[in-house]
Amino acid sequence: MARTKIYVPRETAAVSVGADEVALAITQVVKKNGMDIELIRNGSWGATWLEPLLEVEVDGIRIAYGNVSAADIASMFDADLLSGGKHERRLGPTDEIPYLMNQDRWTFWRCGRINPLSIEDFELHQGFKALKKAFVGGAEAVLEAVAESGLRGRGGAGFPTGIKWRTVANAEADQKYIACNADEGDSGTFSDRMLMEGDPLGLVESMAIAGFAVGASKGYIYLRSEYPLAHSILSRAIETARDAGWLGENIKDSGFDFDIELHLGAGSYVCGEETAMLESLEGKKGIVRFKPPLPALEGLFGKPTVVNNVISLASVANIINLGGERYAGMGVDRSKGTLAFQLAGNIKRGGLVEKSFGITLRELVEDWGGGTASGRPVKAVQVGGPLGAYIPADQLDIPMDYEAFIGIGAMIGHGGIVVFDGMADMAQLARFAMEFCAIESCGKCTPCRIGSTRGVEVIDKLIEGVDREQNHELLVDLCDTMESASLCAMGGMTPYPVRSVLKYFAEDFASSGKK
Amino acid sequence: MARIDTETTSQIVKNHNGKPELLVQILQTIVTRFGWVPPETTRQLAEELNLSRADVHGVVEYYHDFRTKEPGKHIVKICQAEACQAMGSRQLTDHAQKTLAMSMHDTENNITLEPVYCLGNCACSPAVMIDGKTYGRVDESRFNALLNDLRGDK
Questions:
Q1: d(CA A487, CA A484)
Q2: Which of A10, A44, A195, A226 has the highest number of chain B CBs within 10 A, making it the mutation to test binding with B?
Q3: Of A74, A136, A329, A505, which has the highest C-beta tally within 10 A?
């Protein structure tokens, strides 16, 4: 008889609320009673509000138990856990949890489902199928499929991936690179991390496909140092893939060489900007480069380089498997396919929701998220990280669509959605935007380096009520300068959250700190 | 925390094949193991990697992770970013500073308190990292409990 499988995520959020202790408690009960089970440390399904989410497989169906703590384990075994027995933590079959059922899982479909470090499990779930298909169909077919899919950069800028890959493919050079940007520094975002922890081999496969398509034999992953668990899982996944012959020279007799080097960042937010990341990968200060030259032509070590976000890359395997047309069939207008939205902050049901573009912000915040965790009304929602605008509660009906967001002076960015309730002091959040820019600016251009510090000072005066009209005007003027004259998005977009507070929450400057 | 010695520094450089383009990785390895980069290490790295001292110094100063002051045995980082602010990280930070009787970036009683801008645990805010491990849904009482664990292990 096959051993019963129990799944407990080994994923940062789950572990941060006790998943390791749950796994340990299971091991102890099993040992004490001489039971024979298989404990699998999977990735998270993304229903973070239910973590730690334990599952037991009964007759091929996975039964979920939510918000499990180590203290529950004894009583769960008493309640016949191994047969999916009744218990107050029991949620029913994982596949029937509404939060997970109604998603469009394209990029994250293996996440939670498989053992992230098992090549066998990965291959049972279509792993390396797309890479094999690429080897048969050739590089041109991959480039066409990616272009046809309409995939745009998921790091935030939304540049068409197909065009970027084509540019690198057409460039002539003795060496080209794939540089995966895993420096996920935006507050409210964690999809890169969840993918790397839950389906790291999926990223490895997609990077190899990218390398094959553009003629690059070497890939780098630039991972932020704040993600030690992702680092450990990803390092092991890369080694596993190498041992199994999926990385290295002449991969599976295809004649294609590709290997991946994993680099760690060192706590600099601006290193998520692509050229700063390249500098950091070269061992230097993460200072933004002038563009042009484009990294696609002169990138890492001056060679043509595909710089893509984790999610952009990881979306490619299924584009090859299922076809670019199918991906393009999802979403709206120029926002094709799906995005892994991340519900965060003051939200009842936080987690990861992969949906086609076009869903409204309200559906995500209210239907999936269930409103605020505090139960108070939503006051503001910041979309797209610290450089994203604060959207007031009466504008939540906006569809998730790159162009629609640009139209209201906001951005979707990496898909992070941070909810605030009425207790939020928006003036302090505007101040924080400037302060954060001052802390993280690389210092190369003046509007960002100096402007951010001046921004903090002007906002302080506004809060104190000093020459309110003049300082309001001055702040708007400063925002204009930063926006139009900064070298990259750090200084160029810090005004977004500030302006949105001026526009929608101006009264908070007078009331700031008095609540 | 122990101070890195010259032999260990050389060994770490050797493990990175003496490549100057791996300077950030070398420093990250040093900081992960020893907590900080002493000035003599900066000098030694410059020599062994054939870089100018200004180059190495610049990189050390640029990145938040590369401390130039010796930290305590335990490093407590509290997330200051927006998602955590939405769940009261400012109050938690005040509470931590009061409880520990110290400010951000200070070291007292073997504990170093630092800000961090996003731990990627934004659906379990507020988040805290202690000695490289991330904790979520940290209210004041959970913070106190975590702190007690540290104090028991001086």
A1: 9
A2: A226
A3: A505
